[in-house]
Design brief:
By secondary structure, this protein is mainly α. It has 6 helices and 2 strands, in the order H-H-H-H-E-E-H-H.
Amino acid sequence: NSEVLCCVVVCTAAMLYHFKTPRTRDWEKYMKKLQSFLESNESTAHVSAWLSKAQEQRRVLVKLLDECAKEHQPRPDDIIKVLSQYLPILEQLVEATDANEVKLIGRLDVVWTSFLCVNINAKSLSHELKFEKICCYSLLALANYQKAVELHHRNRQESQKSKAKANAEQAVDSDPIFDEPVDANAQTPQIFDDKETVKEISQYLKNAASIWNYA
């Protein structure tokens, strides 16, 4: 995954691609039986509390991703915010289930779509919470990338406006009869991109690549 993103970042100096935001299946229908299973054993009873906390945040994430799909809008700021609250709890849940060797086969289906598939509706299923963790970090990387795309397009629009304004002013001041012809090769190229915005875009791309590599 990290190689794919790095290739995209390197190859698209003037262009960034759009990816659809993935979706995931809600865990609500599994919760009652799963909590009963965990609480039936003294050694795993405490894991049920982490599961409840995770589900509380995950419910918000599922709703947000469903809204993104319906609105056809990525909403990276909201996704980053929700994941910043969900991921620390998920990390604790994964650690607790691993430490107590909790087996979730037949008790929980972790289902996600992938933005890297040709068919956005194609689903991947696992019974491991590590898969949930991988998908969430991949989503966080994508959200950072989508934020870079959002800023990039906004910056390009402003850049085009500034360029058009400068060209219009230059055309008004020029006299095609008396002015000496301008050597285009000798002119210093004018940069109309906002430098701070470009730095911000670069930082989001670096964040995305770093998170994706970790995932």
